[in-house]
Amino acid sequence: MLILELAFTDHPERLAARPAHRQLLARLHAEGRLVAAGPWADDSAAMLIFDVDRPGLDAIMEADPYYSTPGVRVHQVREWNPIVGPGAPEA
């Protein structure tokens, strides 16, 4: 799994692009490629958990203009190995 961390500013273009981005996230979740996503409580950043490989994440990000919208910065992409919950190995 991959964790995508975003950082935000209050740029008006980011807020305008957010509804379409969230529709894409809902589709990715329904397809099983997105485990969970959401902003921090103060809306300064967000975390998205994808069940894809790096080329898959790159394709998702390339297809969604939100990731290059003013006010959105990709802070970090990290590989994650859960031990419990979705994606964890069966005991």
Automatic annotation (TrEMBL):
InterPro entries: Dimeric_a/b-barrel, YCII. It holds the Pfam family YCII. Residues 12-81 form the YCII-related domain. It comes from the Bacteria. SUPFAM superfamilies: Dimeric alpha+beta barrel. Belongs to the YciI family. This is YCII-related domain-containing protein. It comes from Actinoallomurus vinaceus.
